[in-house]
Amino acid sequence: MKILVTGAAGFIGFYVSKSLLERGHTVVGLDNLNDYYDVDLKYGRLGVLGIPREQAEVFGQMAGSATFETFSFIRLPLEDREGLQRFFKAEGFEVVCHLAAQAGVRYSLENPEAYIDSNIVGFLNILECCRHHHIQHLVYASSSSVYGANTKVPFETSDTVDHPVSLYAATKKSNELMAHTYSHLYGFPTTGLRFFTVYGPWGRPDMAMFLFTEAILKGNPIKVFNHGNLERDFTYIDDITEGVVRVIEKPVEARIQSGELYKVYNIGNNQSVKLLDFIEAIEQTLGKKAEKQMLPMQPGDVEKTWANVDDLIRDYGYQPNTPIREGVQAFVTWYREYYGV
């Protein structure tokens, strides 16, 4: 298939693009390469995919990969409605995997406009392009954040998610509602994937895995919110990637025939890990104890996440299988090599 992956220089987008290419698909990556976090990391991911930095930096110009014959990249913002329409018309995609978004719960308190521009306006532009250019299937990133103030665990997609506790979560819930509307009105399948705390090599610097590892190695204290009374469904990147690719590759004809055009799935590790146990796994891997700065709960945060992934197992044979200590070891190994620690 010819597949568009938005957010291709991002953490999950990079891995999904690489996996699809290795499976023989033609992939076009799109990213705006914003500076929300260290842009060198984004260029580094693109470098692995064979896109030179000097080509990736140019807006609106297609760059071919030196590593994968079937990969090309364009720097284009989601807010550029007319540019996106021209791009879709020229490329003729079959499937869109939309992973680009303004990420981060806490940053949404500082810069709410960025979330509306990227996650609402940008998502609308993607939906309009899918509608007008006859995309066969839109797979898009949602988030475990949509569960907000829910206390029943594990989280199930049948749960009510009407009480977000951050603007980021509200935009992701909005994406699901918008996708439902477009599937209903225009008859194309959409599949939302609620990601649960993804970690691993090439991960985002604003995530706990990265922040803790960096601070411990530098001898700086780590910030432990809610005095450590947090639990997360930490999910290793390889497990996430496998799930996303299975959703992309599975034919959707049966869904079209049954009228089941709109679907949402949890995609996580199917278990909840205490934050202090996660920190302990990092400490043991690094061979160094963390100095913990215990802090109160942060605005927009939640105490516990835990994904019920029975639907994904049933429909796609998805089964996460990476133990937390194995995933932590893989990240630490990458971090030491990448930063020369």
From TrEMBL:
Residue spans crossing the bilayer: none
InterPro entries: Epimerase_deHydtase, NAD(P)-bd_dom_sf
Lineage of origin: Bacteria, Pseudomonadati, Bacteroidota, Flavobacteriia, Flavobacteriales
CDD domains per the UniProt record, alphabetical: UDP_GE_SDE_e (cd05253)
Domain NAD-dependent epimerase/dehydratase: 3-268
Cross-referenced Gene3D superfamilies: NAD(P)-binding Rossmann-like Domain
Superkingdom of origin organism: Bacteria
This protein's UniProt keywords: NAD
This protein's name: NAD-dependent epimerase
Pfam families attached to this UniProt entry: Epimerase
